[in-house]
Design goal:
- It is found in: Cytoplasm.
- Belongs to the HPF/YfiA ribosome-associated protein family. Long HPF subfamily.
- Interacts with 100S ribosomes.
- One of its GO terms (biological process) is negative regulation of translational elongation.
- There is one protein chain.
- This protein has two domains: 98 residues, Ribosome hibernation promotion factor-like (Double Stranded RNA Binding Domain), CATH 3.30.160.100; 82 residues, SHC Adaptor Protein, CATH 3.30.505.
- It is built from five helices and nine strands.
- The strands form two sheets. A five-stranded mixed beta sheet has the order 5-6-7-8-9.
- A hairpin with a 2-residue loop joins strand 2 and strand 3.
- It is globular.
């Protein structure tokens, strides 16, 4: 597994890097078996250290965790605990996912846009046009998954919404977390 361990305005020492590799490697190996790469980013927010960890699995699934603590090692340990809990929760489905899928998840390219928001001053003035202002344009990937895999991916990534291409119907679908705690699925 490839590791990318960085710090945002923090010097990440050799001892911490070694600790991250051994601890994260043992947790991921327990559940996933075939991770491709992991990214760990340490930063400081006020008096707390923040650890953000993302692990990409060979099948295309991504697992993400984030934790805040007063010490940098404690932040990493809390982050690994969250990831361990997520992977433990989905262990059976991850194992079944590996058996059913012999090839990695197919990804399709799509355009992603960031639109300018409105401020209170902008709301007072009537706009000339209803077309939004595009701030940035990026390339994004849309995975081809079953609905169950999409829900699992959304939960593992900690995302509120996941857009995916439905393998069964060949159409673009959306799963999202509802305010009542349930999962919504849009199938146009």
């Amino acid at each position: 597994m490839r590791y990318q361990i960085t710090g945002k305005q923090i010097d990440v020492g050799e001892a911490l890097q070694t600790h991250v590799k051994t601890e994260l490697g043992s947790v991921i190996e327990k559940y996933a078996g075939r991770p491709t790469d992991g990214t760990v980013i340490f930063s400081k927010s006020g008096h707390e250290y923040v650890c953000e960890t993302t692990v990409h699995l060979s099948t295309g699934l991504t697992c993400t965790a984030k934790a805040h603590e007063n010490e940098i090692y404690a932040a990493f340990e809390a982050c690994v605990e969250k990831m361990d809990k997520q992977l433990r929760r989905y262990k059976r489905r991850l194992k079944d996912h590996h058996k059913e899928r012999t090839t990695p998840v197919e990804l399709f390219g799509a355009s992603s846009y960031i639109l300018a928001g409105t401020t209170e001053a902008d709301e007072a003035v009537e706009p000339d046009t209803l077309q939004p202002i595009i701030v940035a344009e990026m390339e994004t990937k849309i995975p081809s998954l079953s609905v169950g895999e999409a829900v699992m991916q959304m939960e593992l990534a900690g995302a509120p919404v996941l857009v995916f291409r439905n393998e069964k119907k060949d159409g673009v679908n959306v799963v999202y977390r509802r305010e009542d705690g349930n999962i919504g699925w849009i199938d146009p």
